[in-house]
Structures are given as C-alpha cells and as structure tokens.
Amino acid sequence: MIKKEMIKKHFITCSVMLVLVIISGLSICSAKVKKTANLSTNRAINKFIFKTNVNDFSFANEALPVNDIKVDRKMKHTLLQHDYSNIQSNVLQLKAEKLFPVIEPILKLYGIPDDFKYIPLVESGLCAGISPKGAAGLWQFMPGTARTYGLKVGHGRDERMNVQKSTIAACKYIKELYGEFNSWTLAAAAYNNGEIKLQKQINRQNEDNYFRMHLNRETGAYVYNLIAMKEIISKPAKYGFKQNYCCSPALQLLAYN
Known about the structure:
The chain is mainly alpha-helical. It has helices spanning about 1-50, 70-80, 85-110, 120-125, 145-150, 165-180, 185-195, 195-205, 215-235, 245, 250-255, and strands at about 60, 60-65, 155, 155-160. It is built from eleven helices and four strands, in the order H-E-E-H-H-H-H-E-E-H-H-H-H-H-H.
C-alpha cells in the first residue's frame, strides 16, 4: 500500500514537472516570436527612416538646409533615437494628449509657432519636477528667469508648476528671443543655452544658421530633438507606434503620474 502511494505521488510530481516544462517552453517560444517580430519591425522602421527625405522637415516653418549630408545624417540619427521601441516616447505621447490642448491656445494667442509646444517634451518630458540645477516646471525655468517673466517663486509658492502661467511666461520669453535673433530655430536654441552664449557663438563663427553652427552637444541636438518629437507625436503610425501598445493601462498610469 505504501509502495502504491509513493508511486502515485511520484507520478503526480512528474506530471506537474512535465506541465511546467511545457508552459516554460511555450513562454520561451512566445518570447522569441515577439522578439523576432520586434526586430523585424525595428528593421522596417530603420529602413524607412534612412529613406526619409529630411529636406521635407522644418521647425516653425524654417527648413533644414537642402542636400547637407551632415544635417541629413544627424536628423535621421535623432529620429532613430525616438522610434517606437523607446517606451518613453510612448509615455510622452499620452502626456502630450493631456497637456497640448492647454498649451496650444496660449502659443497661438502670443503669436508663437505651434512647434514650440514640443519644448516641454524635450526640456522636461512634460513633467513638472525640479532639475539638479534648479530649473522647474514644464518649461524648466530657473527661479530668476521665472521672476523676470512674471512668475512668483518663493515663500511657499512656485508658479513654474502652473501649466497656464508658466506657458504664458515661456511665450513672453520666446517672443523676446525671436525679436533678438529674427529666427525661430535660433530662439529655440537660445531658450536652451541662453541668448548671451548663443550670440557669442554667432559672432565667433560668423554664422546665424542654427543647422550650420557648431554648438555644445545639448544645444546642437536641441532643435533636431524638437523636430524628431514633432514627427513622432504628430505621425505615430508612420514611425511604428501602435495604438494598442501606446495606450496600455501600464503606460497610461505612467503618463498621468
């Protein structure tokens, strides 16, 4: 009797182990299929990007230089960095859907091109946190600059975190930068690097075309990142973003936190 019980228990154990092995095998197979599909999609998107004519791209209706190999290569490389496999890009899409309806009318009211709405995505990822340097809010204002353009910072109050008020302040600043440089791309670059530093580079290089200037790594990539974000957000399907992938509950939770 004891022997029969032992045989029965052994049989059950073996059966459970066999089921687990089968399930594990199916999971591995499924993961491999998914990985292969993702790799296939990545290759397709990469191939598409490399065939893209970047001369069709622009920022605030200011076009990229025509037939410039360096600009072409840099723009395509930036697009690859923002493809659908980058989960943060998916999260940013959802955040943009929430905040663009607030930002867009204010830009229009102040005569700022619509493309500037992508600055918060590049500057802060549409998060209202504080950077290690002290910049805060969607538009990443430093305290002094924020106060200059009408925001109250200090004594337990920080209007940099207010979407409407910080966007109005950003519009005032951007409009002033455009008045100084007479170029929206240079205004965007100055927003990132400061007008004094940018003006020094313009004078030193005797060049006022952003795309032909030699700037520090962050500022030199800044407008390219804005254009790439504009492409990805406005044409998600074109760059491999799938609606059911972008809008999963997990990503929605991330987007609205």
